[in-house]
Amino acid sequence: MSCTIKKRQSVLRNLFCFAVVSLIIMLTVGCERKAEAKQTLVVATEATFPPYEFYRGNEIVGIDMDILREIARRNNLHFQIEDMSFDSLITAVQTGKVDLVASGLTVSPDRARQVAFTRSYANARQVVIVPENSPITGREDLRHYRLGVQHGSTGDMYVSEHIGEAERFTNGALAVAAMNAGKLDAVVLDNAPAENHVAGNKGLKILPEPLVEEEYAMAVSKSRPELLEMLNKSLAELEADGTLARITEAYMKDNKPENTAEAHGAWARLKENFHTNFIKNDRWTYLVKGFCVTIEISAAAAVMGILLGFLIGVIRSTADQTGKLRFLNALCRLYLTVVRGTPVVVQLLIIYFVIFGSVDISKVLVAIVAFGLNSAAYVAEIVRSGIMSVDPGQMEAGRSLGLGYGTTMRNVILPQAFKNVLPALGNEFIVLLKETSICGYIALQDLTKGGDIIRSQTYDAFLPLLAVALVYLSLVVLLSHLLKKLEIRLKKNER
Question: How many other CB atoms sit within 10 Å of the CB of residue 266?
Answer without folding.
Answer: 8
